[in-house]
Amino acid sequence: MGNGQPIIVVEDLTKVYPGGITAVNGISFHVRQGEIFGFLGPNGAGKSTTIMMLTTLIKPTSGRATVHGYDIVREANAVRLSLGYVSQDLAVDDALTARENLYLQGRFYHLPKPEIEKRIDEVLKLVNLHDRADNRVETYSGGMRKRLDIAEGLIHRPRILFLDEPTLGLDIQTRREIWRYIENLRAEYGMTIFLTTHYMDEADSLCDRIAIIDRGVIKAIDSPSTLKSQIGGDIVTLKIDSVTPERVQAAVRATEALPFVRSVKKQENSNDSYVVVVNDGETAIPAIFHAIGREGASISSIALKKPTLDDVYLFFTGKELRQESGSREDAMRARMIMRRVRR
Question: Residues 215, 295: one domain?
Fold first, then answer.
């Protein structure tokens, strides 16, 4: 966990793309020095747009943010020198060796040649690629390429490392390997790491704190364990079956009135599915059946479990976390990348 000193401070940050598409909508948060901080949300939630603003790749529409004390708009060059950035898209050149890729990256940061050589050996050992340093990247597996990509983000010894979906598309064994490297970066160098992810297990395993973001708005921020404890008790998901909407609503009110029920939330895009937080699920379920039955409705399906991050996301957003292809944010991001390539 970080030492409590904020190294990233975001205040009412907003990004509106042409056409009135609001990707990030007035978010505020801070990241503590030395912590692993995660943004959890699906495609189009605003995760990548936030990172691109904080790394000065795009300018915010309004609001402000500082990274290591530097303003992301007025002091963009100082911000860039203080951070490393590893995007979703691999930035390594397949035709070059790992050593050549890293040397090129070091020159981009105007590092002296002797210093680059020293740091190349250092970062290659860190990501366990030293024995493949002089092999072309085209011979690497997907996990090795991602590790090299992370090494490129470390060559200038940044204080903060931004990782945008660092394990996207990798198998679970390789993902866990990348997690170990990320944890080692914090343990060995005290590095602050800001990552985005849509993997619940990744956020739960790696992050000291997470921000749940949905449609450009932050719904909750805290440690995974605290977020789960905030829900409290057990999670009952149920589907109410009735001939009229009025009876469904009466059944919901009857459920909310039960003394052991903490909250009842309707699932998004559903007229009859609800998430009920209760003190004791085994005791609650018979009483919920009885209360709903009294209102002339019935339960067509019901499930009981302890809170997980999936339940936390569902609780705060009203929907399950699933990837939706072709989001507006992704399309805008792709167009921006193509424009940069053409320049």
Answer: no
